[in-house]
Fold each of these.
Amino acid sequence: MQRRTLLTLGLVSGTALALAGAGAAVWTPGWRDGRLSEPARALFAGVARAVLDGVLPQDAAVQAVALKAHLDRLDTLIAGLPPATRAELSDLLALLGTAPGRWALAGLGSAWSEASTADLQAALQAMRVSGSAVRRQVYQALRDLSNGAWFADAGTWTVLGYPGPYRL
């Protein structure tokens, strides 16, 4: 392969990926009308199952209710972010909501809602220790948002041994 052919192939491939990512963000934004989109909710439910394993209720019905409340708190948390940060997060969630984006950034072949907890944990761990600063930042954002929304509820503080704020 000649150098010119390789450079052309790289340029065309990069352009195609950029257009596909931008198209996915336009068609299914991660944040829409003051709420997480359905694909973004599935993503954060998967992240919560992985990050909060052992903290989430074991009963499936109770866990479903807890995850719904968690996702509602995430809506509130994200709504409080600056508009530019919400826009960047929306683009990230849109990209992670697509199969190519999920595979490229998280290394996860299955959909967020279909992956096992072990697969989700392995994907997040790979992101955490990745040599790519972008993958590490994505991991930190997903983990921090998920944990922030979960532990914002006073009902979850007992797991940490936190008695709550002192009454003045």
Amino acid sequence: MRTHTELEQLCNEAERNLRCFYPTTNAIRRATHVRLQNGYIVRPFRNVYARTAYWSTLNPAEQMRHIIRALSQQFPNRIFAGISAAAMMHLDYNWKLHADGTIFIAGKTGNSKQTYRKLRRIIVADPPTSVLLSSRERGGKIRMTMAENTSATQVTATSDIINAVTITSPARTLVDCGLRYSFAQSLSLFDSAMRQGLTTTELIIDICDDMQIDCGRIFRLLYYMSPLSENGGESLCRAVIIEAGFAVPQLQRVFADPDAPWKQYRVDFCWHTPDGRLIILEYDGTQKYVNPEMTNRRSIQDVVHQEKEREDVLRKAGATTIIRATFDEVLLQTPLIQKLIEAGVPLAGAVPSFAAPTNAGWQKAC
């Protein structure tokens, strides 16, 4: 197959700017169709394309961001909403929410029969909006910034801006996601938005006040959310704990080695029980053992040895029980719940002080 220079240039530019491409001439459209048939190019959305080899290197969230940036160029007046807006803000959530490839936009009316099946509207008349701008700095690095209460069409074009995407505001995005998805699926979105300082409880409540539907699910998420949760896996783990009726744990508590106080370890979750026990739960994502950035390029044996040393210090610091849970155990729920039962983690209803988040108000970890 001969190289089509214009198409290759279009692909190169799109990949450099972290988006998919769309044909701009009939000649490129024909060349794209031929390469789509032989597998060189993939079409993840209507009139949105990418080179297959490049596309396969992207995770589901980044694939969504590439599609949305291309669509925003084609339709600059569109306001992306729901999980699509969450993806653009790099919030934490389970990538399975992108399994059907749906893109969500804000609209005054619902979908019609003529609407593309992968495009879904969230009905809202005049949502508060933000614009996510991608600009290229010296050296080629891309920087992301957010402009509040504006739209992509209002942004002054400059040579360094490579992408401008209008989304619903962080508060509105969280409300839409919280109403659509389960508590366990949504808690990580709320945790990460608060951790990044993207919105406030007051702004979310203001959104709910203007809606004529029951927002009880949102208020439950507001009650339990915490910026102390460091990643989506920890948020999901905490959601499972809460949903199963266990006492809400303290988050990110720091323990010092009694024999060497300068050695300190921070644990993911812990409980102080009424009978004086200290139960610690450590969430072990697989990245902890295989991601070079997280292991400092140490071998798995070295990482495991350090974990053993860590546990010894925690026991000297007063831990009576240490539980370890993997992502798969959290996802399946039953293995995690069984470990919590065996460790004697108290139920929320058994001790009134456990009924509320122990980090309410996100005060410092105790």
Amino acid sequence: MPLSLGLRDEENERINNILNKLTELVYVPGGMNTPDAEQLLAQLGLSIESIAGMSNDDFNSHVVKFHFDFANMEKLADVLATDPEFGEKAVSLYNFIQAESKMFSFDIFNKINALKL
């Protein structure tokens, strides 16, 4: 069921806050492999294992199902890009954003190219 505008804004703000905390964690030793990161991922309906086990399409569908806007999708992809294990998922999510937002972003394009090198 689609969210009303007010609920959508609240949900985007909640997701944004979680992703900001997760972004801070990935730059400390242990990164995404810490209990704090797992707890934050759980609030997004994810875990390290579930991310690793999902196909790229399933992962992209998951973030849509959990009402991520394109900015939050990009933040999540940025977090994933810091872990070599999830580089392919990050590229897939960046490509999904480029295709679905119907707006070309040189910033995202450069992030994709940096991960493919």
Amino acid sequence: MKMKLLISALLLSTSALFAQVAKPIETPYVDYPIEAGDHDEVAQQYCLICHSFGYVLNQGKKSRPYWTGTVQKMVNEFKAPIPKEDQQTIINYLVKHYGYEVQSGQH
């Protein structure tokens, strides 16, 4: 009896895997324009390994300390393979195109 219940439960739980969709599913394409110049190829080379550039754009305009911390988090916590010499290049690119410099006295 237990075996029949187990088989029934297994069949019911896997039946959704074999369901068919009547029409094709279309995934929308979203273009995330990347600002060219200032070593954008370095940012693309390393950032796009793990996520789309939309992730960068969705952050909004952020300060140099924010982008510095973000790049450091990617390297230290998420183990992004970004060489030390390219980290500052990426930070400079992000600040110039997707951020701002903090003036003294600002937070």
